[in-house]
Amino acid sequence: MNFNYPNGKRYIPEKKETIKLKKEKKWSYSNRGMTLEEDINITNEYYLEQNIAAIHKKPTPLQIVQVDYPKRSAAVIKEAYFKQASTTDYNGVYKGKYIDFEAKETQNPTSFPLKNFHDHQIKHMETILKQDGICFVLLRFSLTEEIFLLEAQHLLTFWKRMEDGGRKSITKDEIEHFGHLIPLGYQPRIDYIKKIDYLYRLS
Amino acid sequence: MNFNYPNGKRYIPEKKETIKLKKEKKWSYSNRGMTLEEDINITNEYYLEQNIAAIHKKPTPLQIVQVDYPKRSAAVIKEAYFKQASTTDYNGVYKGKYIDFEAKETQNPTSFPLKNFHDHQIKHMETILKQDGICFVLLRFSLTEEIFLLEAQHLLTFWKRMEDGGRKSITKDEIEHFGHLIPLGYQPRIDYIKKIDYLYRLS
After folding, report:
1. Rounded to a whole number, what is the largest CA-CA distance in chain B?
2. pLDDT band, very low/low/confident/very high, at B201 (cuts 50, 70, 90)
3. Main location per UniProt (chains A, B) (predicted)?
4. Which of A2, A186, B103, B143 lies in the 20 to 30 Å Cα band around A16?
5. Nearest to A59 among B48, B51, B58 (CB)
């Protein structure tokens, strides 16, 4: 309900003020409460609006078991299950090139566990590289809020090291060496296209 | 329930035999009972296995409302609704190029109704063309089992004609003139990549 104080000033409930404050503070990059996925979606919306690139998150794949069709209303799914994706989450086009990536985050401060990826995704990345697509992962270290772009060819090397009996993670040193830090921005928030431009000489 | 006849021969219910018969007959291309979507999925699987291209159908987008988490079992979605897709159904990569398309069929023998597409998809196609992606539609005339590849730029012209007050469909003559007939094959079934190769000089 909206109403005014006797002095004509509009009453704003305290809760809203808190929310507003948080909104204003959010660009401090600390405790923003934004997930990596939200930041990427907002980045992709920006790219789309500005005609920079057309990249979308794929819908979550579901196994639908039961659907009801009530009269005069929309079909209701009454039973469904989450399925494991056979591809990565994001793909699209930039300057005619196929772009494909996955985004993951870890609370671990010193290394990125490879269990964040699954076999199907790794196989998909191999296929994309064979087709000369541009494929990478965005890796976020939650504690330090650092985001790195690591090209799929490097991820595949570390995955192979694990399969050959080596460590089950990529050290942060390795990510700093082979990957590319993406500084958080205002618009776009995670400007991964800029890195792609640079890495693939597309500008 | 599985059980054996007294002579030890396994009992197979009659229904299964009927299904088997249908399967053996399906390559006659008449009344196969295969949908366009199934044919495209099998084509894409073939492309993937043969390292020709990596093209996938996007999962159906759903609005999930309620999820149950029973103890010791997988999460069950108890209430969800179908959402209108904001993109086309298929995308992927071929020789580094971004490929994007939608597939539709009609029972109409003489024209293809434009109501098969919706605004969001048309807008998406415009965006893909701006990004130099390869974008098209596969149009199937069910009665004659003919499939045409029509490049998005032509579809957009016919869409504009409709918006300007013109006809709400594309005549079959127009599709024959501006589109490209894809003969049905065994493997791959709908070899749209061959047409793309030819149209964009990619081989």
Report:
1. 74
2. confident
3. cytoplasm
4. A186
5. B58
